[in-house]
Design a protein that fits this description.
- Keywords: DNA recombination, DNA replication, Endonuclease, Exonuclease, Hydrolase, Nuclease.
- The structure is a single chain.
- By secondary structure, the protein is of the alpha/beta class.
- Helix content is 31%, strand content 23%.
- The chain has three domains: 262 residues, 4-Layer Sandwich (Purple Acid Phosphatase, chain A, domain 2); 57 residues; 42 residues.
- The strands form five sheets. The protein has a six-stranded mixed beta sheet.
- It is globular, with a radius of gyration of 23 Å.
- The two termini are 39 Å apart.
Length: 387
C-alpha cells in the first residue's frame, strides 16, 4: 500500500505578516497532483491542519475545498488533530465525512478504533492518536502522572492490544502528533512541555509498521518506521535550511517500509544574512538573496539610521530586522534577549531565584516552579479548547 504522509499545514498562518493562503492553496494542489501521478492509495495528515483553534474563514474554506477534492479522487484520507487545532471543532461532522472516505480522528478515547483499508495483500489498520494533552487525558488513560510519555505509551498499549486481536498479517500505521526524542525543533512550533519533559522515546511506537508523525516542522527520519513529514511551508526563519517535502511510503505485503521524499513547491526562498548595514548593502555575494524573504541581523555598534528602508532598496522582501552589535561576551550591554537565548522558562525562573536570594532553589522549590508552569500551560490549553 502506498501512503502520502504530510502534516502541519497550519492553514490560516502568516509568515512575518505575509499572507500564506495562496501558498497553502498551491500546496494543496500539489498534494492532489502527487496523489494522482504517483498512484497513492491513502493520504495521512498527522495534525495541525489549522494554525489556531478558531481559524479564519478563508482557512476553513480552503480546508473544505481540500476535503472535497480528496473525496472526488476516491483516495481515502486519515487525519488527526494537533496541538494547534481545536479537536472538537475539527471533529464536527466526522461521522458524515467518514462516509466520503475522509477519516477524522480527534477523540483520544477512540485511538484504538482503526480505519481499515485493504489492498491485494490484505488489511492495513490506521490508528489515529490526536494530540494528547497529558493533563486533559490522564484520566482517560488511567496514568498516575500527567506526562507525554505516559499517555502516549498508554494509547499505544491500546493500539497494540487491538492489533493483536486482528488477523495475522494485518499491517499497521499510527498517526501521532508529538515531540519524539531525537527530533530537531525550529522556532515555529508551539511549546508542549509538561512536567519539564515533552519528548517521548521513539520506542513507544514499537509494534507497528509505520509511525507517521506531526508537530516538528523539519522533515526527519528517526528510524525507518518512524518519520516526521515536517510542514509543507516555512513558518519561521529558523527553517531557512529546511527542504520542505512529504513522504511517499510503500508498505509491502510483509510490512517492509520504503520511503521517498516528494518536494513541496517553494513560494520564495528564505535567507538569513548578518553583518553591518554597509556590508549587507555592498557585499556582491549576497546578490543571490535579493529576491528572497530576508531576515537581516545588523552587527553595527550603533544602530544606523533608517535601516529597514535602506535594506529594502536591495532586498525588497526583507521581513525581519534584528540588532545584535558585536560585543565581547562579558559586555554589560549584551542584550537581555541574548542572555536568555536557549534557556527554558524553568531555567529562567531558577536563575531569578538565585539572583534575588543568592542561592538557587532546592528540589522541592524546583517542583513548585515546575507545577506552576504546568498549570499555566494547562490553563492556556483549556481556554483554547473552550473557544
Amino acid at each position: 500500500m502506498r501512503l502520502l504522509h504530510t502534516s502541519d499545514w497550519h492553514l490560516g498562518r502568516s509568515f512575518h505578516r505575509v499572507n500564506m493562503l495562496d501558498a497553502q492553496a498551491a500546496f494543496i494542489g500539489h498534494l492532489l497532483a502527487t496523489v494522482r501521478e504517483r498512484d497513492v492509495d491513502a493520504v495521512v495528515v498527522a495534525g495541525d491542519v489549522y494554525d489556531r483553534a478558531v481559524p479564519p474563514l478563508a482557512a476553513v474554506e480552503l480546508f473544505d475545498d481540500a476535503l472535497h477534492r480528496l473525496a472526488d479522487l476516491g483516495v481515502p484520507t486519515v487525519m488527526i488533530s494537533g496541538n494547534h487545532d481545536s479537536a472538537r471543532r475539527l471533529g464536527v461532522g466526522a461521522g458524515l465525512i467518514d462516509r466520503a472516505g475522509i477519516h477524522l480522528r480527534t477523540d483520544p478515547a477512540a485511538c484504538a478504533d482503526p480505519v481499515i483499508l485493504t489492498d491485494a495483500h490484505g488489511d492495513v489498520a490506521f490508528y489515529g492518536l490526536p494530540y494528547l494533552e497529558p493533563a486533559l487525558v490522564k484520566d482517560e488513560f488511567a496514568v498516575d502522572r500527567a506526562g507525554h510519555e505516559a499517555v502516549i505509551g498508554a494509547a499505544m498499549d491500546r493500539v497494540r492490544a487491538d492489533l493483536a486481536g486482528r488477523a495475522p498479517g494485518t499491517r499497521s500505521v499510527v498517526l501521532a502528533h508529538a515531540f519524539v526524542s531525537g527530533g530537531h525543533v525550529s522556532d515555529s512550533e508551539r511549546d508542549i512541555t509538561v512536567g519539564g519533559v515533552a519528548a517521548v522515546p521513539a520506542e513507544v511506537f514499537d509494534g507497528v509498521d509505520y509511525a507517521a508523525l506531526g508537530h516538528l516542522h523539519g522533515s526527519q527520519t528517526l528510524g525507518e518506521r518512524v518519520r516526521y513529514s515536517g510542514s509543507p511551508l516555512p513558518y519561521s526563519f529558523s527553517e531557512a535550511d529546511h527542504r520542505k517535502s512529504m513522504w511517499l511510503v510503500d508498505i509491502g505485503p510483509d510490512g517492509h517500509v520504503q520511503a521517498e521524499r516528494v518536494d513541496c513547491p517553494v513560494p520564495r526562498a528564505l535567507a538569513r544574512i548578518r553583518g553591518t548595514l554597509d556590508e549587507l548593502l555592498d557585499d556582491p555575494d549576497l546578490a543571490r538573496h535579493e529576491d528572497a524573504w530576508v531576515e537581516a541581523t545588523l552587527t553595527d555598534a550603533v544602530r544606523p539610521d533608517d535601516p529597514m528602508a535602506r535594506l529594502c532598496e536591495r532586498f525588497p522582501h526583507t521581513l525581519s530586522l534584528v540588532f545584535a552589535p558585536d560585543r565581547v561576551p562579558d559586555d554589560p550591554d549584551v542584550s537581555y534577549a541574548q542572555r536568555l537565548k536557549d534557556r527554558s522558562d524553568q531555567q529562567i525562573a531558577e536563575d531569578f531565584v538565585t539572583h534575588v536570594r543568592g542561592a538557587g532553589p532546592d528540589e522541592q522549590e524546583q517542583e513548585v516552579l515546575r507545577s506552576a508552569f504546568d498549570a499555566v500551560r494547562t490553563d492556556a490549553t483549556l481556554r483554547e479548547v473552550a473557544r
